[in-house]
Amino acid sequence: MASEDPVQQAMLAAIPHLRAFAISLTGSIEQADDLVQTALLRGLENLDKFQPGTSMQAWLFTILRNQFHTNYRRRRREVEDPDGSMAERMAVMPEQGARLDFTDMQVALTRLSIEQREALLLIGAEGVSYEEAAQICGTNIGTIKSRVNRARARLAELLALDADDFGPDRLIKAALLMQTP
Amino acid sequence: MVARSLDSSTVLDDTDALEEILNVNGDPGPEPILPPHVVASLGEQLQAFYAHLMSEPVPDRLVEILTRLDRTGSSHDGE
Q1: According to DSSP H, which parts of chain A are helical?
Q2: Looking at chain A, which residue has its C-alpha nearest residue B5?
Q3: How far away is chain B from the Cα of A62, in angstroms, using its nearest Cα?
Q4: Residues 6+ apart with CB under 8 A from A150
Q5: From A105, A136, A167, residue closest to B45, measured CB to CB
Q6: In this structure, are residues B10 and A70 in contact, taking their beta carbons and an 8 Å threshold?
Q7: Domains of chain A, each with CATH number or no CATH
Q8: Do residue A66 and residue B50 have CB atoms under 8 angstroms apart?
Q9: Could you report the per-residue pLDDT of A6-22, keeping only the tens digit for each?
């Protein structure tokens, strides 16, 4: 793998990002690796459609994200998982007594709608711009901002961040109440 | 800039469509407002979680997909 091909280098560099995104989207390493594999293969097959000078990583994220939605729709027809119990069983297990409980985070993420989940992961974890997230998700910046806000509120609720560890309880509960339709 | 030549038809599903309509009307409903320290804490937890995933070793089979580039030398017969 000592290639100097810049396209190949860009794809290689994107893999850890694609994988982290896919694992946190699906809650399953196995599904995630299949997604990354498919995205890389489709990327290679469609390299002629890649615009030189644009972000290879963002392009691959778009492919992976679209593939995830296709798989999700297919799977949703086959299995219902309303309370996320399957996501819980498939959750990535924490290693060597991690200081933070990653299982909680993984399970909480899989209980967000997939639109909120992908928006929050792109903005809050991967750190792309709102514009880039909107392009990857095929929507507009306002929608991404709205999804991220709602995802944060829901995640705070799921992780019980409104409990004792944090400041004025009343204020937070009042804020969280605002998300109910 | 992202090339959107792939699967752009998968963009809208039910909840997307609903959100689009609400946004077009300028009334997306009440936005949840979290206190800044909760947002900051969430961000830290999420980034720690993500960094943990990023640090995992990449399976060989994923890297091997890209070695096909070396052999074919072009994008045409990469299967």
Answers
A1: 6-26, 29-45, 56-78, 85-90, 102-110, 114-120, 130-136, 141-158, 169-177
A2: A49
A3: 8
A4: A116, A179, B31, B32
A5: A105
A6: yes
A7: 1-78 (1.10.1740.10), 112-181 (1.10.10.10)
A8: no
A9: 899 999 999 999 999 99
Cβ contact B32–A70 (<8 Å):
no
- Going by pLDDT thresholds of 50, 70 and 90, the confidence category of residue A141 is very high
Cβ neighbours of A121 in B, within 8 Å = 46, 50
CB contact (8 A) between residue B53 and residue A24: yes
A171–chain B Cβ distance below 8 A for any pair? yes
Q: Which amino acid is at B50?
A: Y
- Which tokens go with B35? 């206190």
Helix (H/G/I), strand (E/B), else coil: B55: coil
Q: Residue A42: CB partners within 8 Å, gap ≥ 6? A: A63, A67, B6
Question: Could you identify the residue written with the tokens 């009042």?
Answer: A174
Span A57-89, pLDDT tens digits: 999 999 999 999 998 888 777 655 555 555 555
Residues of B in contact with A181 (CB under 8 A): 29
Residue from B26, B33, B13, B46 nearest A137 by CA: B13
Please report how many Cα atoms fall inside a 13 Å half-sphere around the Cα of residue B19, on the Cβ side. 21
pLDDT digits (tens, 9 = 90+) for B1-34: 444 444 444 444 445 445 544 544 445 567 788 8
